[in-house]
Amino acid sequence: MMISVKQINRFGLLVTGPFFGILLYLMLTQVPITLPSSAFPKAAAGLTALAPEQTGTLISALDTAKQAAITTAQSIKKTVQLYTQTNQSMASIAKTAAAQMTRPALIYDSRITKKIGYPTRTITSDNITAQLFTIRAQNFTGYALKVKLKSRDAMKMVLGQDKVGGSETTLSAVKRYKAIAGVNAGGFADSGSKRYPLSTTVMNGRYTSGFEPSYKDLFFVGISEDMKLIGGEFKTQAQLDKLKPKFGASFVPVLLKNKVMQAIPSKWQTSPKRAPRTVIGNYKDNQLLFLVVDGYNETGSSGATLQEMQLLLSRYGAIDGYNLDGGGSTSLIFDGKIINHPSDGSLRSLPTHFLFFD
């Protein structure tokens, strides 16, 4: 069935006619329309409308609070800036104080270094500072090795092939342990095909063959648990134990004690008179000094006398000094190279060696 447009229009008028009629009546008669109070949202409990003067007071208070907040924020900002500046100042003061504390040590080190000369090579790390110098005297040439130990792992003494009776060159020990430097240590005695350390020897805080009281000018020299050079003649083990030796070896004779040159027994003044030498000394800041002197043979015609070694130790500012094994045993290795000129033509196989590590 088809519905025409006219039919639709008539139906729309029939539906909307009554609504438009009522609206026209209300407009013409101006009947007031009143909504109930429930049609409006109620104010929150406890709140009442503010009078104009109260509103002004509130606005004034808010302005005052705002200004107080701004002032407080500015004050906090200034306090933070002052705190930051104070921290920076304190850090600067601490840095300056630390520099001042190390200054005397640096001055002392500079003084003793100048007495030796200028280092030809230097190896430095968190563990150690090792400086190599060349010595040129009237009757001999040699080398000085100044060592500052910064940790307990910076130096050790090792046995040849790591066993009592074993032996090897200092270069072999340096390479085997991957050390940066090495110096020959104490004397030795041969027995058959084995080579044993002379007299009292300490390794890792233990006596390798027991304690032997000092005799015939023998002394013990080594490093204590607190990394200080210790040495001298010891009649009892208790005397040496008090110094807490970490490692050390024995030889003859003592050269310097508290800066005083010690009398050299006549036997050691002429047996031989001149020879390759190795000595060890120390400074008041516990740095170590090794002096290694070249000699072409052991007939007494080249090398240094023990008195000359005493003079060198004293001239270089050492506190104590001890003669280590010399002659063909004298060995100095630095940075993987043989520094001295071994009198045997090649390095001698030895039972004890001082090694240094970076």
TrEMBL record:
The keyword Transmembrane applies. Keywords: Membrane, Transmembrane, Transmembrane helix. The keyword Transmembrane applies. Residues 178-357 form the Phosphodiester glycosidase domain. The chain crosses the membrane at residues 12-28. InterPro entries: NAGPA. Signal peptide: none annotated. Pfam families: NAGPA (PF09992). PANTHER family: N-ACETYLGLUCOSAMINE-1-PHOSPHODIESTER ALPHA-N-ACETYLGLUCOSAMINIDASE (PTHR40446). This is Exopolysaccharide biosynthesis protein.
